[in-house]
Amino acid sequence: MPQYKAPLRDMRFLLNDVFDYTGHYASLSNGTDATPDMVEAILEGCATFCEEVLAPLNLSGDQEGCTFTNGEVTTPKGFKEAYAEYVAGGWQGLAHPQEYGGQGLPMSLNLLKAEMMGTANWSFTMYPGLSLGCMNTIFQFGSTEQKNTYMPPLVSGEWTGTMCLTEPQCGTDLGQVKTKAEPQPDGSYKLYGTKIFISSGEHDLAENIVHIVLARLPDAPKGTRGISLFIVPKFLIQPDGSLGERNPVRAGALEHKMGIRASATCVMNFDGATGYMIAEPNKGLEAMFTFMNTARIGTAVQGLAHAELSYQGALPYAKERRSMRALSGKKDADHPNDALIWHADVRRMLLTQRAFAEGARAMIYHAAKLADHMVAGVAEGDQAKYERYDNELGFFTPILKGFITEMGLEAANIGMQVFGGHGYIKEHGMEHIARDARISTLYEGTTGIQALDLLGRKVLLQTRGKCIKAFTNDMIALAKPHLLDGGPIGKMARMAFKRAIQWKVLTLRIMLRAAKDRDVVSAACNDYLMYSGFVMMGHFWLKQAIVASQQAAKGGKESADFYKAKVQTAEFYFERLLPRADGHKRSMLAPTASIMQMDKEHFSFS
Fold it and tell me: Which domains, from first to last, does the chain contain?
């Protein structure tokens, strides 16, 4: 199975050289303590925890899975002890306010932590990971009393949180939610209904679980306008903060899943469970988007995690496994055949994994800076600042979640392919990565939902193309000074410059067509998302290549190989992967008739 090693060299390159996180943290009101020494200590400490504690539990957790007995869930062997070590290390409160027991550091540090934890063991990471959105929602929309009650134990990790949206009759279309919330004389509510696919809905890691639940009031309007949001704890809270009686919210079953088997995905039954409204009546969906956007960025990290882990598994195998001679001649003279890595097609696969992982990391680290500013806006009470960065991050979110998870799944499948038949055998751990990766394109909104959100809502409705204009202007500004350069940097800059212009024109063409044919949005959105992802990743690869080239020119033998490999991986991306955007371009501009002309009755098995 892959032996996870935190990619600290690449992480430091992005943090220090590409994105100047030192300067970024110095500009934040909550960034004073995020000194280079502190960040380095966090990286090193988290890497050790992930490599030595979480990674060894990844395969065994998948093999054992969770067990369900009489409404109680037991996590795999070692998970409870690992979670206790996680809590003792103060990892949960890394980026949450000091007033609630956290360390008050910038949110981006949580994403760095999440990347390492998620790559080492995604199933484990989901337990504390779901709590982050719960905390963000309570912190932003909860009353003072709710914050004082729930935030401290959530921040410490003593309690965990969930999001309870989906029901048997509805997934993405939350307007169909049927769970009821009946007002009580004391101001609380009794909730009745069933939620499905609830990650970390029940487990034995923490003493209490705080559910954030969508439900309807008796007089609520129909559809999404009539949904409210409630806090429903597993155990009720006494006035002194201690745990009281068991609330009637219980797991009815565990879902039997293809992957992430060590993560408890539950059917949750609310049988008159006591709940407390958060935010305003009938405006719960607006507040829940805070939770959902947090979860979607976290899911983008999953795409990066599986690409990285699969690459870390495939690379040593390709160097050790021998098969045939390379077509260009004998490479390993001391052996009757050459290592797989000498075959061009195997190198293509490895470079694809690497390019996706390192490109995704750059995209996510850039978005993390936006998230830092957004959170700072909330903390400072600066609504204009919050809305500015929330809107900018909102443009990135569907691309990060949709594109990166699709590429992470591809990279996971490539890892199996490098192993050949051995990749299909469980003992090597490669099929495990692919199974875990499969869910990433489905939950927190499928790729199709992200595509509709990007094209239909962010581009067409909310900004009328302004978000594309803003980003492509950044692309042009980066590429323009290098258009006349020789060598690979100049070539990549010219390609990126042309793609920026092309993206603008494509967006305008789609907007004009959608004004006459609304089906264009749904017909073109998936290709538009993938096109946007490939071009956006190209921008961040160019950014990395420029910095790597500049750093290499400064000398320093120790890092020369790293910078050279970075530029070469960028070249591979521009030559071999970015051209995929052309296929998506042609497809998105094709007439909708080829999709919509067939009669419903003609969709059949005969």
Answer: 55-89+121-282 (2.40.110.20), 454-595 (no CATH)
